[in-house]
Amino acid sequence: MRVLVVEDEQLLADAVATGLRREAMAVDVVYDGAAALERIGVNDYDVVVLDRDLPLVHGDDVARKIVELGMPTRILMLTASGDVSDRVEGLELGADDYLPKPFAFSELTARVRALGRRTSVPLPPVLERAGIKLDPNRREVFRDGKEIQLAPKEFAVLEVLLRSEGAVVSAEQLLEKAWDENTDPFTNVVRVTVMTLRRKLGEPAVIVTVPGSGYRI
């Protein structure tokens, strides 16, 4: 899942981004509304965590632009105000969910994951294929009943492959969904991660390389 965090309190923004990355999400961070509009014009995001009171361009206008463009991106709006009227107004602007500050990180993570599931064809909460069972919420992976410990990027790559339901996923698509914009697209990070993931999943290998196209399970 790829997420954009838009928050002008830099310490909070960076903390949220770090926490979501530990949950195997690809996260970009910006600190004002103008930068947010620039990013959504370039990258496809599953979820935007959007502070309402932003400098340069207000969060309300960012939400309006996302809706105007007809993007499938879901918006989790943050605000320091917990008034019901503010929540209603935010939802009417196009936000899909609303979270007042201060908030528990576990709740933010759960809400981001719930919104991420709504950006594509509905899938079961637990993904299963070829003897592999992956629970995104619990961050657990099993193969034939045996639990497998994965690093965040390995987990993210496996989740993307399972969500494709047998379709081929290119290295570029994996890079977009599992890494943030700071990753050099010319590195071999995808290939190395897939190799490590294959080793941890064990034999027989379930991740198939499709020459010239990408990978599938």
Automatic annotation (TrEMBL):
Carries keyword DNA-binding?
Answer: yes
Pfam families assigned: Response_reg, Trans_reg_C
Residues found modified as 4-aspartylphosphate: 51
Q: Which domain of life is it from?
A: Bacteria
Q: Which residues form the OmpR/PhoB-type domain?
A: 124-217
User: Which segments constitute the Response regulatory domain?
Assistant: 2-116
Write out the entry's keywords from A to Z.
Answer: DNA-binding, Phosphoprotein
Q: Which residues bind DNA?
A: 124-217
Q: Which PROSITE patterns match?
A: OMPR_PHOB, RESPONSE_REGULATORY
This chain belongs to the protein called Response regulator transcription factor
Q: Which organism is it from?
A: Streptomyces kunmingensis
Recall the taxonomic lineage recorded for the source organism.
Bacteria, Bacillati, Actinomycetota, Actinomycetes, Kitasatosporales
